[in-house]
Amino acid sequence: MLARKVLQAGQRLLVVSEDPGQRAVIGRELWRAGPEEFLANGEADGAYAECQPILLSDRAEAANGARMVLLADGKWRPEALQFERALLLFGAAETEAARALWRELDDAEGVTREIHKQDEGGRWRAGG
User: Fold this and answer.
1) Global confidence as pTM
2) How far apart are alpha carbons 28 and 89 in whole angstroms?
3) What CA–CA distance (Å, rounded) separates 111 from 84?
4) Topology of domain 2-90, per CATH?
5) pLDDT at 95 over 90
6) DSSP calls for 19-72
7) Burial of 52 (C-beta count, 10 Å sphere; 0-12/13-18/19+)
8) pLDDT tens sequence across 67-77
9) What is the distance, to the nearest Å, from the Cα of residue 42 to the centroid of all Cα atoms in its chain?
10) Contact 26, 56 (CB under 8 A)
11) Which of 67, 71, 47 is nearest to 59 (CA)?
């Protein structure tokens, strides 16, 4: 799970989705991450947003001081370039938009592009 790796590295994470239902599912799954380890999280408009190790929001604004953003709804936001690392998750329906973004970011200063694909076992592998 990407969120677990971020926390293990001592970082905080901002997860962005415009869809409140998707954020609710993500939040639930993070709490159920494993029997010995849950991944604490909360909504950006909730109490103590600045204290959350994983913050769920509809905007790319890290009230929790996250330096990494995960765009879970497949929609790129230019504000993501302000983070040290931005991850864009997308499905088959967003492939063409992701390819166009890949080409666009080729000219962006300070941007290193990488692509990873999830294998059948759920692991992320470099390369497309």
Assistant:
1) 0.89
2) 18
3) 10
4) Rossmann fold (3.40.50)
5) no
6) -HHHHHHHHHHHHTS-SS----EEETTSTTGGG-SEEEESSS--TT--SEEEET
7) buried
8) 999 999 999 99
9) 14
10) yes
11) 71
